Fold these 3 entries.
Entry 1:
Amino acid sequence: MTILSSLRSSKSRRTSFGSLIIYFPATFWMASWGLVVFGILQSSPASEMISFIEKGHCQHVRFHATPWSIDGDGLVGEGIGNRLALEKSWTGDFKLWITLSMAKQKESAAGIRINESFFGFEGKKSQEVFLKGPLFRDKKSPGKSKDFFASGTMIHFKVLGSQNQTRFFINDQLVATGNTIPHVHRFELVPYRSKMTVKSLVLQGDVQDLPTSKPRRYHLPTIDLAKETHRQILVDREKGQYLGHPTTVLLDDRKTMLCVYPKGHGRGAIVMKRSKDAGLTWSPRLPTPESWKTSQEVPTIHQLSDRKGKKRLVLFSGLYPIRMSISEDQGETWSELQPIGDFGGIVTMGCVESIGPGRYMALFHDDGRFIRQGGTGQRKFYVYKTTTDDGGLHWSKPVIIAEHPTAHLCEPGLIRSPNGKQITVLLRENSRRHNSFMIQSDDEGKTWTRPVELPASLTGDRHTGKYTRDGRLFISFRDTTHETPTPGDWVAWVGTYDDIIQGREGQYRIRLMDNRKSKDCAYPGVEILQDDTIVTTTYGHWTEGEAPYIMSVRLKLDEIDRKAAAMKKDD
């Protein structure tokens, strides 16, 4: 039994009789505040009181990454990504009580997230309490964290929400006042690099269930290729230097391949290499324009053509403003990076699709920080579309094609149906509350369906898919599935387009390589060669304790089919 399942089996007992709710045990939270409940608590549907965490046990709680452990009377979590979220939402007036401590805090961001806002604590640098997001717009820090508590000691939080304002108390002292919150749809405790111990968490308000999500685990077999080093090709590596986020393009001769990637995590000078034998060997780093050193975000590369059939390579670099560089001689020489308009975005033009002669549609996302100069401060995720009518020389103003009330949709990956009549876009879900999502268009991107949650088997970041000769899809991505044997690894999904449309799990998953640090890997390029060989390329922490570097893996699906059949036979 996992910690998660054992915790959920230890729920507080509650029996309802009409408008009366009886809680057992009688004393259930924060006696240190002098707040004790005995016997029968008067309640109503509009003012339900739930003890989410009590003496190390919890209910209606979801763990991201790994379940939190029980230590004495507290629930303990630490590390980036190991957040604790409530599986409830609430509207109107509310009261929230939390008793917790934070220790080992080395950097910023530990604290409480409410919707898109953050009440948090800086680490070793400023040591300040910080207020972030629309709830605290234009509000200044109330002071140093040491003014309110000492590291490792228990803190008594109280949050009171009303139609006029939201007030935050620490140890009964009012420390911050924010705007009203009509509907809390996301509440998380975020330890980041600290160690957070939660003794109790109690909410009183109009509590509702969150919308039902699809199952968080899948039942597909996983074929593990991580130890099959004969499939692995080193593209680039530099001791002590972070190399990340590559994309590739296969040119018309089906042998020449270009790969671009930053020296750094997204931001950093763009490196380019060329392979003349379809990825078996790679050139030294090639000369690039001086402006490529100024790239602020993940570079992407695509081959486009205009109405007269003139082909060009276009490289994009994001944040504000989005810039592009053009080559009209198959990547031998390039123009300097130049803005494509008065707008920006994140992981820009991760997918580009032809929608007519010389016409292309490109997709990207932004969370309000870069879509225009100075940002909006919204931190609301939108997926955008921009188009070109002249083979990539000029691009239109972006328009929103997808958003979601509780999910953070981003990093679109586009797949066209086998008959060419439909476009499906797979989307990363960055709040980590749901599976990944998809949207669809039957009119070349003019209109789109509402986002629909995908099966757990397709949950991940930065989906990149191509069809093999037999019509199946190979989709590469970073594994962020909630319950998976390969968390944070470089994986691929194999199935049909119809599997995606019908919400089926697919045929099988593949672990391509074992990422040795967190979930920092796999912004992949996928190319299909003339003999149906798949060449997929990405970055990752492939060696324990060393900086990430660029590798590719080569395979054919008939090889993997035999492995899957043998696995099934053994079962």
Note: Residues 47-209 form a domain with the Jelly Rolls fold (CATH 2.60.120.560).
Entry 2:
Amino acid sequence: MVVEAAGRFLVTTALKETWPKNQEILFLGEWCKIYSQNENTLNKYYTLKYHWDDRKKLRRDYLYLDKLFEKLLIELATDLNNIHKTKFTVNYWRILIGPWLGYFTHIIYDRWYMANTALKNFKELSTIILELDETKLVPNDMTHFNNLFISDLWNHFIYGKIINELNISNVFYKKSNTNQKSNKIRKTFREKIKFLYSKFINKYSLNSSYLLINTSLSKLNYFKLLLKLKVIPVPNGVFSIKTSKPSKIFRNFKINSENRVSKSNDFEAILRQLIVKQIPISYVESFSELSKMSRTLNWPRSPKTIFTSHSHNSDDVFKQYAARCIENSNTKLIIGQHGGYFGIGEYGFTEKHDIEICHKYLSWGWKSDDKKVLPIGQLIFKKSINIKSFKKKHLLLVTATLPRYSYFIYCVAIASQWLYYFKDQCEFFDNLDNAIKGETIVRLHKNDYKWNQAKRWKDKFPNIKINNAKKNILVQLKKCRLFVSTYNSTTYLESIAMNIPTVIYWDINYWELKDSAIPFFNKFRKAGIFHDSPSSAAAHINLIWENVDEWWNSVEVKSAIYDFNNNYNKKSKDLINKLFQVIK
């Protein structure tokens, strides 16, 4: 199809079949440009500035969307109860659909804002929208949704829906050459074995008072706790269900009625329309199958307590089971902290949601005004090891990637801001002494999200040593002289717990901290552990490289680590007994 139009051509994603030839292009964001694709072949192009580069706006939007989420949850709970002829409470639906609704609300706002900004600031825009099979772009469940929202195809589809509701000069529709994957679920052999175990072995647990699943505990501690509670283990993992296609009969509800949305707010109107079209099939057409599966797995009928650290986000079968038990049997849901970001990052949807739905939240040491938070200590605590750093030679630089498209809001480098993050990593490496550069290993994140991490590094530094993260990071940690952490996550908590010399740096403009965490990072900063610029971190490492042990064992460093561990990385001397008491 030959496309010719006046003015600029709006490109929303990296799908090359939506890029016109011989036209001036307006890229909606850096996510449109894949590094291996050379944009120098284009005539002219301009890339829109990302709205959440203004982090004050990000916080304002987070607060606005949080209030909107609560309003939508109440309305959607009513609609779903009507569809399924149930009378579940809002809390039931919060547990089941809350993660999806929160993510989706944040995602649609971001896509709407960028599209709306382009249309407001550029006249005579044109764009190509692909003709796609919409039924294959409705998520089966939360796990499927997590795969969809990082894809170019799904994001192009969503941008197309939004653009159709806004005023744009010219829209060209084009048949897609992209092969759309079927929504049909194929169970793996491993999943089939787990299902058979659940179906037959779990029968002996039907009258059990407790369910422990995906707890983050080590295998040894997990079985110690099971033994103490006299509970049979259940297999970890997400069980899929049979899903049908989206049905107009089920999706004829409207959460955009006049008394629910301001006519002046086109974002909320568009969001409500898309919720009806995009809400996962497992919550609508296959809701009965979801309920049936949670019973087929033979988990305890009416447990007193459910304990998990992971299943409450993406496992729809577990969420339906937990919500039903809480609703009908007054079951207590205990959630364990499942990442180093929690309690340290300034704000974020998942932390707030997790605390909202649980009876007790087991933190790794941090406290909160919310009495639900119980600082029990590290659930996955690593043993301290005595490493003589002078006997090691490598510097291990562990890097992060994040999806090219935003998802839920929290204090990290979002979407195209990863490019700023990558620039910082290059600046850090560039400022190391040559001898240290030769001993540096860059460990890439296992998920590339089409950022082409390895190629970017090799193009910048041809001789750099790259590790593709196939091996367990603990193996590399034990072999390095110095570990460098570059983002707010679990890795530096583990390395510090293992007594491995650690330097941390990140841009505090993109990795904002809670006020309560700032004093501890200030103490880290004074001790040389934490740096808020790559050049500062590199300069410190150049200074201590030949005497890492001396620095790491200094009074100032040990004092800073002691205070931090007691508040965020606490080792519980009697973890199993403490968990036993909480669960009982």
Note: Residues 389-568 form a domain with the Rossmann fold fold (CATH 3.40.50.2000).
Entry 3:
Amino acid sequence: MGKVVSVLRQHPAVVLALGVLALVLGLLLADRGTAAQWIGTGFVVLVVLRTGVDMVRDVLRGHYGLDILAVVAMVATISVGEYVAALIVVVMLTGGEALEEYAAARARAELTSLLARAPQVAHLVVDGEDRADGEPQVRDLSVDEVRPGDLLMVRPGEVVPVDGELVGQEGTFDESSLTGESLPVTRAAGDRVLSGAVNGHRAVLVRAEASAADSQYQRILRLVEAAEDSRAPTVRVADRFAVPFTLVSLLIAGVAWWASGDPVRFAEVLVLATPCPLLIAAPVAFLGGTSTAARSGIIVKGGATLEALARARSVAFDKTGTLTIGRPTLARVEAAPGHDPDEVLRLAASAEQFSSHVLADGVMRAARERGLRLADGSAAEERATHGVLATVDGRRVVVGKLALVRETDPAAHPAELEPGETAVSVAVDGRFAGSLVLLDPLRPNAAATVDVLRELGAAEVVMLTGDQEATARPLAREAGVDRVEAGLLPEDKVRLVAAMEHRPVIMVGDGVNDAPVLAAADVGVAMGARGSTAASEAADVVITRDDIGKVVQAVDIGRHTYRVALRAIWLGVALSLGLMVVAAFGHIPAVAGALTQELVDLAAILYALLALRPGVRHPEVLEGAGAEQRVPVRA
């Protein structure tokens, strides 16, 4: 009730219309019919003039909205002396905006809860002695003042203010607002902790790795704000109902007038033709779908994206970190004659410190696991999707694709690979030094995800990867993917997505090199838990949990939301048309018709709120997903 009062305060037109209606009804009860008629008629005329001006402006801009019906209904009821019915129409129209805002607030609850929880203060650990109780000395500062490298204390129940590394003892965190995972997760010292996670029952120390603006939670908030500001095409589709709905309504009203010879019948029909269900139902449904997605760890940038997800006919996947787990492990080192395998690995890992590619992480991790000391390189140059060049211990090292290494030494040769393996070639001081063979297995639920996407209407599923075909094709076959395009540059992916026949096209990726194709696709889906900031910013959908099965859930939510929106619109239209036909035979007086139309509005809005439900669930895509979800995340 408090929310309703708050909304009414924000819409004085509603309060004024209700006040005039109450005054008119009071005068009628006091047997002051003439005064009631003058006041009611005068107020409705003012509303008609104001609404009519806006309507004319819209028509001049080529937009034929549903206000036409409202104006005709008010004029008709006033003309036949049904000023009380006209006042009810005014209350309904002015109250439509307030009612929409109330319903939207209900649908938007999950999104606004994210905004409300945004951390504002961080506790900076001050160098020096600890307090008497053993806790470090801290100084509070604005979260915007935190810089990478700062040591922060996060107290029990507090939100982690920035992305960082856990220092000291392990901690337990609630990451549900980020990943949709309902159970708390335990992080050990050295693990990465995401901003937005809620600390458990004891204070922990976190070393900041990013500023607040560059942290995960703020990135999600920016996407949420974009989602709230968007307007879905289906909402505009509702406007396209205006002309046929208006013509049918006027036809029914005109025939009723002609057949009965009574102009009152014309007004009685039109009070049931007011357009609130069309204006309100679709936005409420899409806000509900966006809220449901956010609650599931899927940030959707707007209703337009939900509609495109619902109608998607093709899906394209990146390979590394998307269909595969994205944490490649070193299978073996194939060193060229005269080169020590450990030294080849050490030099390659030292150079890979300057690369953002997921394979670089696997190479560095393998070197550390073998106890190799990485050197500080210099004069580094990363060539996107190809590799990296750097000077390490005075030696020029080239690490990456075979084609890049062959620019240095044309004699470089490919490694012997088993299905699913990939190779990183290495050259040192202009000579081929060998290959690092890595294995990045398919995600356990990748094949189930592809199968369900086909069941949901995907006519084509393809893999677009920069990796070599010998590596990509066995993985694609295992996942059940139709077609493989390998050895691609970012611009090649954009070209291939643009040429796909069945549209809309969903593109799923995670890396920096995927940002252009995510932006170019009809729906770009970023695996944001470990993916790059660039990919998340370019995408239309960001999955905050490292689970490819969430792609199916996103499509499910889109399809469910779109169906609810259209059914809510048609529900309102069908009820209005049915009641108009009844009114055409003189069975619904004008005042009763105006009140009945309010019930039609309410029915359409309540149906639209069904978008808050999760829709169909596909448990098969979640099987085996737990393993990769618990891998420590990485920027």
Note: Residues 623-635 have pLDDT under 50 and may be disordered.
